[in-house]
Design goal:
Layout: H1 13-27, H2 45-64, H3 77-90, E1 91-94, H4 101-112, E2 119-122, E3 130-131, E4 137-141, E5 147-151, E6 162-163, H5 172-183, H6 190-194
Parallel strand pairs: 3-6
Antiparallel strand pairs: 1-2, 4-5
């Protein structure tokens, strides 16, 4: 980030989530290592530099707030990077379902302007669903931000439940680039293998 620029709240969504987790750990509502079970994102050098700057700001904020060092011993640069690496790849964008025709119109307008999400959250079980560009299930967000898994077609017994991490309407090359850059893997689903 350039000095003198004001970051958008969209740029800070993951640091805000890390800050909230730190507060939960301090209050005893979560363990410092609660996200360690999740897959971390691959981080580029530029991202690591930004994370170090964000960490210094977070650490300074807790210090200025007068938090005792004994309750913030978990708060290290390694903890922060570890948490952000997991949040970045496992956070879900929450978009609530419309309850009325007016809500549906507002939701459609917000979707066009890319402002349709009401937030981001990490849900442990859904974080374990693998990706497929032709998924057999989809996560639906309810009004209270609870998640429900909805089958998109008949699912055979023993078949893996898969969701789509991205906009599946893009062409194969665009999907591959986004999945490689954002999630660190090359998709080998049937759609991608066929070039669809």
């Amino acid at each position: 980030m350039l000095a003198g620029t004001t970051p958008s709240s969209r740029d800070l969504k993951y640091p805000y989530m890390a800050k909230r987790l730190a507060c939960m750990v301090i209050s005893g509502a979560a363990n410092a290592d609660c996200l360690n079970i999740l897959q971390p994102a691959l981080l580029h050098q530029g991202t690591l530099i930004e994370m170090k700057e964000e960490f210094e700001l977070l650490e300074s904020t807790f210090r200025k707030a007068g938090f005792q060092e004994e309750i913030t011993t978990f708060l290290t640069i390694d903890w922060y990077i570890n948490v952000l690496a997991r949040i970045r790849i496992n956070a879900f964008r929450i978009e609530l379902v419309a309850s009325s025709y007016e809500d549906l119109l507002s939701s459609a307008a917000a979707s066009v302007s890319c402002d349709s999400s009401v937030g981001n959250a990490v849900y442990m079980l859904p974080s374990f669903y693998n990706h497929d560009c032709d998924p057999n299930a989809h996560i639906v967000w309810l009004q209270n931000a609870d998640a429900k898994l909805k089958a998109l077609r008949d699912i055979e017994e023993g078949e893996e439940l898969c969701i789509c991490y991205i906009d599946a309407s893009m062409d194969a090359d665009a999907r591959q680039k986004i999945l490689a850059d954002g999630f660190g893997f090359e998709c080998r689903c049937l759609r991608c293998l066929s070039g669809d």
